[in-house]
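INFO worker-7 received task bundle
INFO bundle size: 2
INFO processing item 0
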Amino acid sequence: MVQIGQYNTLKVVKQVGFGVYLDGDDLGQILLPNKWVPKETEIGDLVEVFIFLDSEDQLIATTQTPKAQVGQFASLKCTQVNRIGAFLDWGLDKDLFVPFSQQKVPFEVGRYYVVGLYIDNTDRIAATAKIDRMLNTSEPSYRNGQAVDLLIAGRSDLGFKAIINHQHWGLIYFDSVHQELKPGMKMQGFIKKVREHGGIDLSIAPPAHKQADQLQEHIIGYLNKQPGGFAPIHDKSDPETIKRTFRVSKAVFKRAIGGLYKAGRITILDNGIELK
């Protein structure tokens, strides 16, 4: 079934002077204008396209890549505000509409807003800043340590709120953040804990054992750059010194140098660590 606001792989059924028509199944034939038709496209070829309504409310296909599909979330720049609402740049020639009723605060031109995409009652694709209603409220089935896609969406008193895999809310606590985070940032994260009532704790760093494995090579590279292969930092160093040098917690650092010591790659001294 062909879906508006999603990617669809459709067959070319007719060629005309201004483009090609695609088989839209129950939606009928859908025009893919010449400016978006891949070179050497012929009748019978399959083309991956995004389907939306043009300015005349006609179904149209494009090979342009929108920044989000219906049911997904993105941080988008406001390009215009008029008497009916706001418009956002979402990567297509036609900007994305946000009704006033779907704005939590009045949108301003030039600013970015985290929004979700939906189909309104006229089959148009629109956006909403009231994203709670779009997120999945069913019990999540994530496992601890699972890698997920995150979109930072805001702050709370405890940390940064993030949308997980375009589906659930999660929280990154302030005390686990070792880099600057801003609303709209996209990144990989990890499930830290799924709480009894559905709350999800997140980390933007891999689980400790994975961090330690990655950190080991970083430590070796760091020591190779130091005079004599020595660094005045060790398992009893101040946590802030470790964080400032390697951007990890003291626990992860101790695990990493412990592994390097057992592997015979470093010596742990009273005043630092040294390459063997």
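INFO item 0 finished
INFO processing item 1
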Amino acid sequence: MKNIIQEDIEKLLAERHDLERLDHQTILISGANSFLMSYFIYLVLEYDQRTHSDIKILALCRDQKKAKTQFAAYLEDPHFSLLLQDVRDPVSWGGEIDICIHAASPVGSESRWEKSLETFEANLFGCKNLLELAREKHSRRFMLISSVDVYGDCPVQGRRKETDTGVLDWTYVRNAYSLGKRAAETLCSFYYTLYGMPCVTVRPVQIYGPGVSLTDGRLHGDFVRQLQTQNQIVLKSDGSALRSFMYISDATHALLDVLLYGKAGERYNICDEAGECSVKELAELYAKRWGNGAGVVFDWSTRNTPEVKDAISVVTGDSGKLRELGWKSRTDLNEGIQRTLTYYTCGDR
């Protein structure tokens, strides 16, 4: 781990007083290489190493090179194992699995077009494979990492609640990610109803922080990359779209709160009302924190591209159910952006 990430993990360790609930359990995580799940894995392994709590992490991922870089500090830890395979293939494990977390999915703009079928299959077939494994192992908990994208174009005004539904064109290839997440949620509902599988589903908003990809087309990474390469941020739209953003350590708290205290069969938004702003406001915050005379400009030639035309104007969530579990916001947008930029500018990578 690098300095900024280490600071976040140390703070999480100091703030969590309930990690003993994971003692002596084996946790299988698909998509373990992902930005969101890496923090979760760092936290659990650091806790286990310091307390000798006999928690085992099975990190399922496809990219061996990335995994060995991401988890270099833990490769010799006997409580950490890499399972290198595609989650679309059946998953087997000889020992017990107490907790199963399905987080595997291609993300970013590439997954919308070039990897649309792979994205849909990873979400749906991957979820099916892990649900079957969890049922075979009589797992105590199954967590699906879904997305606020499942709401689609929701007619309800204001922040999305877990009971809200919206329109998604199921024939439009670019909706592969959103539809795959919806299908996985449906599967979890079946397994909960038919087999009593203790499933919980989380729907994260846009999560950002140290380690976020700079190349997958999502806002925070794209803004950092543009500032690094051209000292400005170029927006493809007028920037009026409203979004909700959450810093990675707050999201890690949220995952733990749902995992440990969420009600089986329920869905929970992972969002923070305090992290809401327009795309233009977000860009201006990044430019201001970056300094060096950086600014925000607009490229109107891109306004008719699918990523601009298809963008939903408001994507924000209601965190009421999450807060009922004890979650609270800890890192505001300004602080989170500063920590993210520090990671990418101070040799912390």
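INFO item 1 finished
INFO post-check item 1: Residues 59 and 82 are 5 Å apart (CA to CA).
INFO post-check item 1: DSSP finds twelve helices and 13 strands in the chain.
INFO worker-7 idle
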